[in-house]
Description:
The complex is a heterodimer of chains A (183) and B (119). Chain A has helices spanning 3-16, 19-41, 44-61, 71-99, 103-115, 120-126, 130-141, 146-153, 157-174, 177-181.
Amino acid sequence: MTMSEDRDLVARAVSAEDTAAFGELIRRHQSQVRNFLRKLAGDHTLADDLAQDCFMHAWDKLHTYSGRGSFIGWLLKVAYTTFLQSKRKSKRYAQILESVGHMADQQQRAHAAFAGEVTDLDKFLAVLSAEERAIMVMSYACGLSHREIGDATDLPVGTVKSMIFRAKEKIRNSFDIKDHQHG
Amino acid sequence: MISKIINMVERIKDAEDRFLESMFVSEPLMDDGFSINIVRKLNRRLWLRRLTLPIAVSIGGAVAFKPLVGLVTTLANFASLLPQNLVSTATESIPQLQIIVLGAVLLAVCLLGMQTLEE
């Protein structure tokens, strides 16, 4: 899976509206995008729906990919934007629900569903803000460079570095990582 | 050179980084029809988009046909009411009127064609 192959596929998809070429791009990157969204959203079904939306948005915006950075970096930017948009929408939805008194019941159900399947990673991610979570996942799960993360989140590289540093510190303070490291 | 050094510095990982990487690592997810579903959706959307313009033109044409015929008939009646010398003066003052009108229509058609091709 090389970057030049990705660029060729993008060129084919854009110039001839070749959905088969775009399908190949989806097959190559769906796992990373879905895993990224699963870690951000914490809900597999919601994450897969968001991943679908993300690829649909990516198709619409494909002509804006300049080929400068990696395609996966660009794709994760689209995924992150899709996630933030859905979060804003669900916040508005929650406000409406709250105004009609359904919120407490919904929260109870969400907590009950979540309590059974909390992993160590979920605990780590829970102490981070949404932005820190996204940056940590891009860095440690997707292997993006600081510059690529900066491009994806529209943040300067320096800010990305300091946010990673702060997130690590939060995790370190909340959990005893040294115990994990030495077995 | 500087960017190479920055990349090297980024790649130097301590035990904490390696631990975090091992925590964040996840199994690759099987496609299981995920990509086919999206491609199918996209194909459906492309077909809809391609069909929308001709269908809209046909419906618009059908709706506009009767009023358009009425308008042309009214204009023709109105033109016959104009004094003959006024019509001949207009034709004399702009002798190439027919060619100008034809040129304008061709230009409009070309512009529309170009826009369609560009899209």
